[in-house]
Specification:
single chain; alpha+beta; Rossmann fold; Tumour Suppressor Smad4; 2 domains; four-stranded parallel β-sheet; about 20% helix
């Protein structure tokens, strides 16, 4: 009989550890083989914690194609649909196949420096900022069309599923998670006699390329935030953002969970 492995990835807070322990007992009783060490042979990955735990698990396991689902022991999260008190119903629904599979698009950035290129991938967003809280000056292109010379705190490029995170806090639009688009949101754009920048976000089709070309004098003062993790690049020349050809998959048990989440989190 084939082993039915389920990954359980948890953050370290007390509530998450307690929930993980109960979940392991429940899954074992139902005939599964739960593991807290990531297995590539698993049929499901359960993330216990808040949205941060979900994002961390996705990155740590290199955007695995194993479907994910979240149990929320943190603040109200968009990726964490299941509450700990509903775990038994969740397992029964999973066994019965009472769920849909949602594809979550990822944003990719190709970073060009003087000597080397790098690829970065994010579930929520990638942000170009200047180091030491300085202002950044960068040219913005969409499909090689020059759109503006941006001056301000930064430019954020988000996925639809990331639109309710840092993007929303920066005045970006909420975009339904399954849409095939990228959103470029200015962070504190400067509008004065000396500088002009678009004050609102731009939503572009997923097959378009957003390019940021910092002015040469800022080539060594950049900061890239990839789902909150900081990266610095010497001699930065250009960044091309596009919808990644990678996706992750998430189980959804309630067709209304997104709208319920939206209302309870923001209203």
């Amino acid at each position: 009989m084939e082993e039915k492995i389920i990954n359980i990835l948890s953050n370290s807070n007390f509530e998450s550890r307690k929930t993980t322990s109960k979940l392991m007992q429940l899954l074992t009783k139902k005939g599964f083989s739960p593991t807290t060490k990531f297995s590539n042979k698993a049929e499901l990955t359960i993330c216990v914690g808040g949205d941060g735990a979900f994002i961390k698990a996705v990155h740590k396991n290199n955007f695995s194609q194993i479907p994910h689902v979240g149990i929320n022991t943190g603040h109200l999260g968009f990726f964490q649909e299941i509450s700990p008190e509903n775990m038994e119903k969740f397992v029964d629904d999973y066994i019965a196949g009472n769920y849909t599979v949602e594809e979550l698009k990822l944003v990719g950035a190709e970073v060009f420096t003087k000597n080397k290129n790098y690829i970065l991938i994010a579930l929520n967003e990638i942000v170009l900022k200047a180091q030491h809280s300085k202002m950044i000056h960068t040219h913005v292109f969409v499909n090689r069309n020059h759109v503006e010379k941006f001056s301000g705190d930064g430019i954020l490029v988000s996925t639809p599923s990331g639109s309710t995170a840092y993007n929303f806090s920066s005045g970006g639009a909420i975009v339904y998670p399954t849409l095939d688009v990228l959103q470029m949101t200015p962070i504190s754009p400067v509008n004065s006699v000396a500088y002009r920048a678009l004050p609102s976000p731009i939503i572009v089709p997923g097959n378009h390329v957003i390019s940021l070309v910092p002015e040469k004098r800022y080539a060594n003062s950049n900061l890239l935030l990839v789902d909150g993790t900081e990266y610095f690049f010497n001699n930065l020349k250009k960044i091309n953002f596009r919808m990644s050809n990678k996706s992750i998959y998430r189980l959804v048990f309630s067709k209304d969970s997104y709208w319920d989440n939206l209302k309870s989190k923001f209203l």
